[in-house]
Amino acid sequence: MKNNKKDDDISINIISAPNNVKPISKAPVGNAAKDAFCIYAGMRHAVGSVIEMEDGSKVVCTDDGSWQNT
């Protein structure tokens, strides 16, 4: 986990249980100081990140910083 400073680089990730985070791209897509992000398990994730639930449903990080069902 990063040092959680507000200016951390953020990436689009796919998250599956239990807290298995896999980045979609190797390079960061934004910066937490100026770009929208969502928080899950104490980490910042860029807009477009997806959480895959154990039941097969998915939620995605949206521009307003919330996780929404797809």
Total count of strands: 9
The backbone outline, from C-alpha atoms, is globular
| Cα-to-Cα separation, first versus last residue | 27 Å
What structural class do the secondary elements suggest?
A: mainly beta
Mean pLDDT: 88
Low-confidence stretches: none
Strands of the largest sheet, in order across it? 3-2-7-8-9
- Helix count from the secondary structure assignment: 0
What portion of residues is helical? under 10%
- The radius of gyration computed from the alpha-carbon positions, rounded to a whole number of angstroms, is 11 Å
> How would you spell out the order of helices and strands?
EEEEEEEEE
The biggest beta sheet is recorded as: 5 strands, mixed
**Beta-strand residue fraction:** 35-45%
Describe the structure in your own words.
The termini are far apart. Strands 3-2-7-8-9 form a five-stranded mixed beta sheet, with no helix packed on it. It is an all-beta fold and 70 residues long. It is built from no helices and nine strands. The chain has strands spanning 9-10, 13-16, 20-23, 30-31, 37-40, 43-46, 50-52, 58-61, 67-69.
Keywords:
70 residues, mainly beta, five-stranded mixed beta sheet, globular
Q: TL;DR of this structure?
A:
With 70 residues, the chain is mainly β.
Map the helices and strands.
Layout: E1 9-10, E2 13-16, E3 20-23, E4 30-31, E5 37-40, E6 43-46, E7 50-52, E8 58-61, E9 67-69
Parallel strand pairs: 2-7
Antiparallel strand pairs: 1-4, 2-3, 5-6, 7-8, 8-9
